[in-house]
């Protein structure tokens, strides 16, 4: 079976790491961020080309991507600032066009499979037309695909992190996404399923770490033996006896704010005279469709004290100054954020503190990446072995899931109707050609 994988927009390497852990073989990454490339190379031992994937006529890029007949998968998550609810949601943001650069590379390389990741804002960006067009193009190219919004907490991540994933193949295999394996409670978002084990809580994920330092250094573990299953998992490959990136970035003039916050409380629960000026500016802003920003995904919470016994909220580049530890009066450290993203303690990031925070916040959690990679690998193995297998007669949208909740916003309903029409046209075509 082919195992070679190319990672686009590879960042710090979360997606590639998971694919490697599943027994596949990332052959190189590409990213515009120099620090992320160094992190990728140092940890994965694979080259990462520091290139702009938006410059489609760059000769180095063209050489690198000359058709690889033997590539199992192209994987990657184009940047999402333009789509993110924390960003501008500007359909015309040039970074949004990078989703079509991703498509163009799949078109050139023609892997058997691809995996595409993005934020949920992609679903409603440009009135659903961006995602519809992307799906349509993949199908025209001969790929059968599934699109689903997933929450990685349902796969055992100690973090509620909702992402849109599209997986496609051109071998005609019908397939499902991996089964969800865990219940989780993240406060606002939860899925409590009887018989399913719980995803680790924030507390369980970070409790085995030693006390924080005041600046970057290797801090030895306090408990020589791991204190729970997740702690064991995090320490598995770490033979340094301690952790890096575990220093407090607390701001002295925020100390009073930290002390007043109880778990679950945010800047808006503080007396107004303690609000940060930047928060005050955003607090009452309404976005274009009239929804107050605090009702949207990436609400301007300013700072927030987390709950110990829930999974963490989505880790972003801001978490190491906005997410306050459940017990201590300080924000999460970079290492705590990395653990919540399921990077083992041996994973060392390169660059400044803010560059590392961005790399961690951007990453596809390796734990989830491994699960998705195993699914691709198993289906490919079955399909390639000639076993009885549900093969499709032509490229199509096999299925999609836009939300787990019972209702949809008008914008999401519009996207739903576009994708539905795509599927019903397929049925008619199938019928016509039967
Ligand atoms: C969402 S992150 C992907 C994270 C990665 N999948 C991981 O698992 O760690 C998006 C990445 O795209 C990179 N990027 C943004 N614009 C780019 C461009 N024009 N060319 C190449 N990479 C770009 C960013 O530096 C960032 O690392």
From TrEMBL:
<dbReference type="GO" id="GO:0003886">
    <property type="term" value="F:DNA (cytosine-5-)-methyltransferase activity"/>
</dbReference>
<dbReference type="InterPro" id="IPR050390">
    <property type="entry name" value="C5-Methyltransferase"/>
</dbReference>
<dbReference type="GO" id="GO:0003677">
    <property type="term" value="F:DNA binding"/>
</dbReference>
<keyword id="KW-0949">S-adenosyl-L-methionine</keyword>
<dbReference type="GO" id="GO:0044027">
    <property type="term" value="P:negative regulation of gene expression via chromosomal CpG island methylation"/>
</dbReference>
<keyword id="KW-0489">Methyltransferase</keyword>
<comment type="similarity">
    <text>Belongs to the class I-like SAM-binding methyltransferase superfamily. C5-methyltransferase family.</text>
</comment>
<dbReference type="GO" id="GO:0032259">
    <property type="term" value="P:methylation"/>
</dbReference>
<dbReference type="InterPro" id="IPR001525">
    <property type="entry name" value="C5_MeTfrase"/>
</dbReference>
<dbReference type="GO" id="GO:0009307">
    <property type="term" value="P:DNA restriction-modification system"/>
</dbReference>
<dbReference type="Pfam" id="PF00145">
    <property type="entry name" value="DNA_methylase"/>
</dbReference>
<keyword id="KW-0808">Transferase</keyword>
<feature type="active site">
    <location>
        <position position="80"/>
    </location>
</feature>
<dbReference type="InterPro" id="IPR029063">
    <property type="entry name" value="SAM-dependent_MTases_sf"/>
</dbReference>
<protein>
    <recommendedName>
        <fullName>DNA (cytosine-5-)-methyltransferase</fullName>
        <ecNumber>2.1.1.37</ecNumber>
    </recommendedName>
</protein>
<keyword id="KW-0680">Restriction system</keyword>
């Amino acid at each position: 079976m082919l195992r070679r994988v190319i990672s686009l927009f590879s960042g710090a390497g979360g997606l590639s790491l998971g694919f490697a852990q599943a027994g596949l073989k990332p052959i190189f990454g590409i990213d515009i961020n120099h620090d992320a490339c160094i992190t990728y190379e140092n940890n994965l031992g694979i080259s990462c080309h520091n290139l702009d994937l938006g410059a489609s006529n760059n000769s180095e890029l063209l050489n690198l991507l000359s058709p690889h007949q033997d590539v199992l998968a192209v994987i990657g998550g184009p940047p999402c600032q333009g789509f993110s609810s924390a960003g501008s949601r500007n359909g015309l943001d040039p970074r949004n066009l990078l989703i079509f650069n991703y498509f163009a590379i799949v078109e050139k390389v023609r892997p058997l499979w691809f995996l595409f990741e993005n934020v949920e804002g992609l679903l409603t960006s440009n009135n659903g037309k961006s995602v519809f067009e992307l799906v349509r193009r993949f199908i025209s190219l001969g790929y059968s695909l599934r699109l689903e919004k997933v929450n990685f907490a349902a796969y055992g991540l100690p973090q509620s992190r909702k992402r849109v994933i599209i997986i496609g193949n051109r071998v005609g295999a019908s397939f499902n996404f991996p089964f969800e394996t865990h219940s989780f409670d993240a406060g606002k978002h939860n899925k409590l399923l009887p018989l399913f084990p719980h995803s680790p809580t924030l507390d369980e994920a970070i409790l085995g770490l030693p006390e924080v330092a005041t600046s970057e250094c290797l801090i030895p573990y306090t408990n020589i033996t791991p204190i729970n299953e997740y702690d064991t998992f995090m320490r598995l490959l770490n033979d340094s006896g301690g952790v890096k990136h575990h220093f407090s970035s607390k701001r002295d003039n925020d100390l009073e704010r930290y002390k007043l916050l109880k778990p679950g409380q945010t800047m808006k629960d503080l007396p107004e005279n303690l609000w940060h000026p930047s928060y005050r500016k955003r607090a009452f802003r309404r976005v274009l469709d009239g929804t107050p920003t605090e009702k949207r995904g990436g609400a301007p919470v300013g700072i927030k004290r987390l709950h110990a016994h829930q999974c963490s909220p989505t880790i972003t580049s801001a978490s190491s100054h906005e997410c306050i530890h459940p017990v201590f009066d300080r924000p999460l450290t970079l290492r705590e954020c990395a653990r919540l993203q399921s990077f083992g303690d041996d994973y060392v990031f390169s660059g400044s503190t803010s560059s590392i925070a961005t790399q961690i916040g951007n990453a596809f959690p390796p734990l989830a990446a491994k699960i998705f990679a195993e699914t691709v690998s198993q289906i490919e193995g079955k399909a390639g072995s000639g076993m009885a297998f549900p093969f499709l007669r032509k490229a199509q949208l096999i299925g999609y899931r836009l939300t787990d909740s019972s209702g949809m916003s008008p914008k999401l309903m519009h996207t739903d109707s576009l994708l539905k029409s795509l599927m019903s046209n397929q049925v008619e075509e199938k019928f016509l050609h039967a």
